[in-house]
Amino acid sequence: MNSVIHKFRQALARKRLKGTDFSIISNNCWGAHVYQTTGRAYATPFVGLFISPASYLRLLAGFPQCLSQPLKFKTVSDEAYINRARAAYSVQWPIGSLGDGVEIQFMHYKSETEAGEKWNRRVARISPHPGRWFFKFCDRDDCTAGQMAAFDRLPFPNKVFFTTRQDCPSRCAVKIPSNEACVPDGLSLSRLSPAYFDTADWLGGGSGRVRWWGRYLNCV
Predict the structure, then answer these.
(1) Coil, helix or strand for 176?
(2) Pairwise CA distance, residues 69 & 46, whole Å
(3) Does position 93 have pLDDT exceeding 70, yes or no?
(4) What does the DSSP 8-state code read for residue 56?
């Protein structure tokens, strides 16, 4: 029964977004799962990776010009918590670098070659229309109040910030009830967020506000 309901939700999401183009810029793989659910090719390079709050905000401050910088690779991160996390894995993922101080953690890639090829191919697919860029951020990785505020000030019309902090003053915040200090990883958040945010409505030009039926029918 759950499989049938999930397939119905997917079909509904694809119908609602039929003919809609969009590029999701995300600090982790939340956006990638939106593409998977809607059956779309990735019109974004932000797939299978994560970016620390500091690096993500640097990237957005120079967006989209930052994406035209050549992707280089480094062996050690500038951020200690990332080095600790990589050390805990049996295979250390590639660390990409764009311009000055923007690191990209290719967590789900086996090599620099694979990461570089897929990054460059997907960068070329980003929509040429700024109105079709959608920016997602969240409170993971010890995101500070100052970083939340910095995201809120960015001059992009299509923004969403997922957080468990009920006192978050951000105008684009979607507050998810939880006893945890932050929202879960991108995959888990993609499954949880439809109850609190209507992504299909947002991508279609709406506010993302969940209607009464949203908790039951929304898949994205």
Answers:
(1) coil
(2) 15
(3) yes
(4) H
Pair 139, 189: CB distance under 8 Å: no
**C-alpha span between 161 and 134 (Å, rounded):** 11
Alpha carbon distance 86, 74 (integer Å):
13
C-alpha Rg value of the chain to the nearest Å: 17
User: Which of 112, 132, 158 lies closest to 44, judged by CA?
Assistant: 132
The more confident residue out of 47 and 91 is 47
SS3 135: strand
**pTM of the predicted structure, to 2 decimals:** 0.93
CA triple 49-51-56, angle to 5 deg: 140
The DSSP secondary structure of 97-120, one letter per residue, reads EETTTEEEE-TT-S-HHHHHHHHH
Q: What is the pLDDT of residues 14-50, one digit of tens each?
A: 888 877 899 999 999 999 999 998 889 999 999 999 9
pLDDT at residue 8 tops 90 = no
| Token pair 């759950």 in the structure block, residue | 2
CB proximity list for 62: less than 8 A, separation 6 or greater: 99, 102
Q: Please choose, from the candidates 45, 46, 113, 26, the residue with its C-alpha nearest in 3D space to the C-alpha of residue 73.
A: 113
99, burial (CB in 10 Å: exposed 0-12, middle 13-18, buried 19+)? middle
